[in-house]
Design a protein that fits this description.
The chain has helices at about 1-5, 10-20, 25-45, 50-80, 80-100, 105-135, 140-160, 170-185, 205-225, 235-260, 265-290, 295-315, 320-330, 335-345, 350-380, 385-405, 420-425. The protein is an all-alpha fold.
Length: about 425
């Protein structure tokens, strides 16, 4: 792979492309998933929901995400990685816009599931593209920058949604417009790692033939890719617990603040700080994710995440909650980045798409169950139970990650460059 990296473009170019690609996570995660937490208190009050019902809406999003992860590989085989990313962005924006059209609970469940399915396609394909950019740049920066885009969506929600108060339809419509803008701006960044070619340098017929060959190589790699889960079982289990735990904090954080009569300014500051911490996370975790051996970076991230969630429960004073949100924001998106880097380190390039899709499916299963179960517990106790849920599950995940030792069998294929591996690396 080193020879391919050596002839690749400068690392800065790959990182700039990853920065525009990061609008994918901004839309699919920051807007389509996490912004719901800001709207949850108003929806609970206006629509007379229990916390379990509110959690079930988040669960519907997770279920859609799970279904989307299952079909993404097929979409890549048919459309290609770049096209799947682009259409996933478009469908995410449409799902958010449609959410503004109805208050009916079944309709909301359906459109939240649709947003989750489209978001999964964006997340998986964007992760594959970012991984290929990282391989060309010989740096983990494109991966961490890609995941940091989530923070942009959280900041947009934190600044734009609370001032709207109970105007739920306007808030959802605004999210749809923001997601549509993200789709437009990220459109040209969604190249599957192939270099743009000038029309002056290549005849139009040669460009078309090159595109067809690229899609053929991509489809062949997606079809031939093998899933590596068993050799990474410790990472799988830690990721499952993380998925079930992390989502409850950000789903119920605004409800936790509302139950304590937090003023509008505190809610906006807390969410904005959380989002900015996500944006800053690459500067903190890019080097450890790339350089620390084994699962050390993953375990440290999970420990800090658990501690950050517990901090808000220890003392609900505004400065403490703010510190909790900053710690959470600086760590939670680092976990998928660390897992992606581990997959990249322990699986052949030809198997990245299949293995990332499998891990995303496992992740989706965890985050599907988490909000509903935490909501049930919170209905019988308080919204603080949702934060405790995050702290406990992430602590358990940290312990498992610290003890996990990826099997050498998973990385055995890296020693041999298959034609599919070389093709997927060039894209």
């Amino acid at each position: 792979m080193s020879d391919l990296i050596a002839v690749g473009p400068p690392a800065r170019r790959q990182t700039r492309q990853a920065a525009r690609l990061a609008l994918g996570t901004a839309s699919a995660l920051g807007l389509a998933r996490f912004a719901y937490g800001l709207l949850l208190p108003a929806m609970r009050d206006e629509l007379h929901w229990s916390l379990a019902q509110a959690g079930a809406v988040s669960t519907a999003n997770g279920l859609g995400y799970l279904l989307g992860a299952l079909v993404t590989a097929g979409a890549v085989r048919r459309l290609g990685t770049a096209a799947t990313f682009r259409w996933g962005m478009v469908l995410t924006a449409l799902a958010l816009a449609v959410t503004a059209a109805s208050d009916a609970y079944p309709v909301l469940l359906a459109v939240r599931a649709a947003a989750g399915a489209a978001g999964a396609a964006v997340f998986v394909t964007g992760g594959v593209i970012a991984s290929r950019l990282a391989a060309r740049a010989a740096s983990g920066a494109p991966i961490t920058v890609y995941f940091a885009g989530t923070g942009l969506g959280i900041v947009a929600g934190g600044v734009g949604i609370p001032p709207l108060g109970g105007h739920l339809h306007l808030a959802w419509a605004g999210l749809g417009v923001a997601a549509g803008l993200a789709a437009l701006l990220s459109w040209t960044a969604a190249q599957a790692g192939e270099e743009a070619r000038s029309g002056k340098e290549v005849q139009a017929g040669e460009e078309a033939r090159s595109g067809k060959e690229s899609r053929f190589r991509e489809a062949r790699a997606a079809t031939a890719g093998r899933v590596h889960v068993r050799p990474l079982w410790g990472i799988v289990l830690a990721y499952l617990l993380f998925a079930a735990g992390y989502i409850t904090y950000i789903t119920f954080l605004s409800a936790y603040l509302a139950d304590r009569h937090a003023p509008l300014g505190q809610v906006m500051l807390t969410w904005t700080a959380l989002g900015l911490a996500v944006v800053a996370a690459p500067a903190l975790w890019s080097r450890p994710t790339a350089a620390w051996p084994g699962t050390r970076a993953l375990a440290v991230l999970l420990v800090l995440l658990s501690g950050g969630a517990a901090l808000a429960m220890a003392a609900p004073a505004p400065p403490v909650v703010l510190a909790s949100a900053i710690v959470y924001g600086a760590t939670f998106m680092g976990v998928p980045a660390a897992v992606t880097a581990l997959i990249k380190a322990y699986t052949p390039p030809a198997d990245w798409t299949a293995t990332l899709a499998a891990f995303t499916t496992i992740f989706a299963a965890g985050q599907t169950a988490g909000p509903w179960l935490a909501g049930l517990v919170a209905d019988h106790t308080s919204t603080a139970a949702a934060l405790a849920w995050t702290a406990i599950l992430c602590a358990a995940a940290a312990l498992i990650a610290a003890c996990a030792t990826p099997s050498g069998r998973a990385g055995a294929g890296l020693a041999e460059k298959t034609p599919d591996a070389e093709a997927s690396t060039r894209q």
